[in-house]
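Hi C.,

You asked whether I'd gotten around to modeling the 285-residue construct. I have! Everything is below, sequence then structure, no commentary in between.
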Amino acid sequence: MSIAVMNSEQSSGQNSVPNYSRDEIMTVTAARQLQNSAVCFVGIGLPSAACNLARQTHAPELVLIYESGTVGTKPSVLPLSIGDGELAETADCVIPLPDIFSYYLQGGRVDIGFLGAAQIDRFGNLNSTVIGDYLRPSTRLPGAGGAPEIAMHAKQVLIVMKQSPRSFVESLGFRTSCGFMNGNGQRRHGEFADASAGAGPQVVITDYGMLKPDPVSDELTLVAVYPGVTAAEVSAATGWSLRIAPTLTVLPEPTAAELSALRSLHARTEQAHANPVRIVLPKTA
C-alpha cells in the first residue's frame, strides 16, 4: 500500500467527494495500527470499533482483552460496555479483574493499550473524569475505569478520538491517565519513572490524521493527514499551537473490503442493540 508524502504547505482539498466519512477513515486508520497476534487491552467506543475491525480484516489472531476480565474475546457486534454478555460468551476465558491488572497488565503481557478520552493535552495526558471544577463540574464524564493503569503499564498506548479545540486542549480539566506528564522525558526519567511502565502514547489517531510524540520533547506532532485535509485545518481543530512535521504523510483511503467490514459491523451492532433483552424468570407459587 503506497503512502504519499508532501510538504506541510502543499496539502490541499481533493476534487472528488470520497465515498467514506471522516469517522470511517479514522476507524480504519486506527485498525491498521494493530498487528496480528498482538495482545490488546481495549477501551469501549472508538477503540473497540477499531480493534474489532482489525480482527475481522487483517489481524484475525489479535487477542482482545476487556476490563471485565474477558480474554481473547471475539464479539460479532460491538459491546455497549465492558459488561456486555457478548464479550464473555465469545471469550477464550474469563478471569478475575485483579488478575487482569496484576498478572496481565502489570506483568508486561499487554502489547497495546487502546484508549479514548474526552480531552487530551499536548503531551498525551488524558481526561475522562470531569470538565470544570471537580466538585461542581460542568460535565461529569464516565470516569477512569482501568485507563490509568493501561496508560501506565501497556507496552505502548494508542489513542483514537475526534479532534476539536474542546477535546485537544491546552490544559486538562482533570488528568485521569498519564501520557508524558509535562514532557521532556519526565515519564522516562522523572520521579514518576517506573521500571514496569510502558512507553506511553505512541500514536494518536483523529478524524483529521495522525499525531506522534516528538522523541525529545514528547510533544504531540502532526505527522500525517487524510486525503484532502490541510495542516491549517488540523491546527484550527487544536487548542494549543500544534507542532507540524516538515513533511506530512497522506494516509491511504479505506479499501472497499475495509469499508464493507466496518459498515457490516455497525449494522449488526445496531440491529442487535435495537432488540431488548428479555429474561424469563420462573413463576413463583
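If it helps when you're writing up: The mean pLDDT is 90.

Thanks,
B.
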